[in-house]
Amino acid sequence: MALYSEKVMDHFRHPRNVGSIENADGVGEVGNAKCGDIMKMYLKIDGDIISDVKFETFGCGSAIASSSMATEMIKGKPLSEALQLTNKAVAEALDGLPVHKLHCSVLAEEAIKSAIQNYYENKK
Ligand code: FES
User: Is 78 a pocket residue for ligand 1 (Cβ < 6 Å)?
Assistant: First the structure.
């Protein structure tokens, strides 16, 4: 069996929502202490809805695929739903990740949560 699913390879080769958003409403940056990889997430928010999302990563292929999938999963969704997105759900949507690569999908989940938190802080 191949180490990576076709979906992982597809999102790795053709990542969706890569880049940054000028004047983003929320920005989150997180890192993984073990591998040293970094993930940055930008959100544009209209009312309660994530109208746009982009990511930049200095991370491995699994981190790229996870973020690509995660951004697709939260785009157009309410913040409350995005906050509930787990790395497990992202990994499942990718038809699985190797166990030693699951932490890469955590980066995507944490970056989204951090960007939403940043949005709420900016609003205060
Ligand atoms: Fe660091 Fe995948 S090895 S995010």
Answer: no
